[in-house]
């Protein structure tokens, strides 16, 4: 079988050894400075440095490109009308992060409900401040996004007794999750939720999906967790809702601008957990990413269809979203 050329773009974190790739795959590992030269002959591109700004205008720079794999869930920085029209296949880390991110969501909701931040704050003063906190069981949760991450969140939150509803682009009945709400029901659904979890990609139709109007309709005293993209939430409106006390708090793992600027007021709010896009980075996450890519690469080298594929017009893997 003819040799297949693969380019791996790595950044500050070196890519682990790719020892199990098929013999006919010739691998070139480059940084951003070496990418242009490699793209002239490569047929596949593995974005290990998945947020790199270097991977743009690929159809013009890589005339032989067939496949791009992104070692992350989000691919919005990569997409363009030209790429959609080119026929280049795009895959992502679908499935690798679902349970990991769901555990982060559960941890954040539990910490908020049990006021663990207050308990930690009392410790330096040795303050014996007995108080009541909340129950997870019976808490109403709305998960916005019914892809792999959203479904994993709903599954885990229900396991501890929370009343969880999913919301997707369109309403439907799901064998596991029952009635899934449609996006047209978002304004009414947030009004009855104690917790809202954002688990949607950045794609056409999701920019500021949680708009100022929707945030104003959220139940007073409710809690927000965002494990999707930062730009799916109107960050200014969210900050105002937190400052005013309309929302009780938030756990935010993504932001409109990353890193979050040092002067942003979200850093100073005690009821806000700021995490630097780390909800998915747990345990053997890099090992699992390499294993997934190795499996996909074996199929590509053999001429098999790659699955699941990102719909480059929608910006995500179609299915349950």
From TrEMBL:
Top-level taxonomic group: Bacteria
SUPFAM superfamilies: Formate/glycerate dehydrogenase catalytic domain-like, NAD(P)-binding Rossmann-fold domains
UniProt keyword list: NAD, Oxidoreductase
InterPro entries membership: D-isomer_DH_NAD-bd (IPR006140), NAD(P)-bd_dom_sf (IPR036291)
UniProt keyword NAD, yes or no: yes
GO molecular function: NAD binding; oxidoreductase activity, acting on the CH-OH group of donors, NAD or NADP as acceptor
The D-isomer specific 2-hydroxyacid dehydrogenase NAD-binding domain, residue ranges: 109-279
Name of the molecule in the record: D-2-hydroxyacid dehydrogenase
Source organism of this protein record: Desertihabitans brevis
